[in-house]
């Protein structure tokens, strides 16, 4: 009987921490801001007047993928039709090419705590409503298999 009680107490303690159901601890937005500045700001801006190699991430949480007007996304990311919620961002940051093969984002964040913190920070960065990105037939190559098209080259 005592071993049964010990098992019940053990299981209740696991449930209390959230570990039994895969509930991760919430991310730390201050840590996420620091991580963003160290690792992400090389390619991404979060201010609406900022320009960068990657798309602006202001207001990214909750918006559709490939939604920033004026940014030239890969065909694969445009076709992915993702919504950047916490679960999708977590998968993408863990392995960008695993979620969207052909994406230009080559930097992964393998540490789950760091991903949670980055996402917690990105939740605090609100931007204006983003209009869907438009493709311009005059500038969008019709032959996506063209080896000269920079969007077909892989990093590294």
List keywords for this structure.
156 residues, mainly alpha, Cytochrome Bc1 Complex, Chain D, domain 2
Explain what you see.
This protein is mainly alpha-helical. Helix content is 38%, strand content 0%. The chain has helices spanning 2-17, 29-40, 75-80, 86-94, 96-99, 112-124. Helix 2 (29-40) crosses helix 6 and helix 4 (86-94) packs across helix 6 (112-124). The radius of gyration is 20 Å and the shape is globular.
Short summary:
The chain is mainly α. It is built from 6 helices and no strands.
Q: What fraction, in percent, of the residue positions are helical?
A: 25-40%
CATH architectural category of the domain at 48-131: Orthogonal Bundle
Average pLDDT taken over every residue: 77
Q: Uncertain runs with pLDDT below 50, 5 residues or more?
A: 6-22, 131-143
What's the name of the CATH homologous superfamily of the domain at 48-131?
Answer: Cytochrome c-like domain
- The beta-strand count equals 0
Q: Gap between N and C termini, in Å?
A: 61 Å
Number of helices: 6
The shape, in one word, is globular
CATH topology grouping of the domain at 48-131 = Cytochrome Bc1 Complex, Chain D, domain 2
How much strand content do the residues show? under 5%
How big is the Rg?
20 Å
């Amino acid at each position: 009987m005592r071993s049964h009680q010990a098992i019940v107490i053990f299981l209740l303690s696991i449930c209390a921490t959230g570990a039994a159901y895969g509930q991760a601890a919430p991310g730390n937005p201050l840590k996420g801001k620091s991580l963003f500045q160290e690792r992400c700001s090389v390619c991404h801006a979060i201010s609406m007047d900022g320009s960068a190699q990657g798309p602006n991430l202001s207001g990214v949480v909750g918006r559709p993928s490939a939604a920033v007007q004026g940014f030239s996304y890969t065909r694969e990311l445009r076709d992915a039709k993702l919504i950047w919620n916490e679960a999708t961002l977590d998968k993408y940051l863990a392995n960008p090419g695993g979620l969207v093969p052909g994406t230009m984002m080559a930097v992964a964040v393998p540490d789950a705590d760091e991903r949670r913190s980055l996402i917690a920070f990105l939740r605090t960065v609100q931007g204006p409503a983003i209009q869907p990105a438009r493709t311009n037939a005059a500038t969008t190559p019709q032959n996506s298999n063209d080896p000269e098209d920079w969007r077909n080259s892989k990093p590294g």
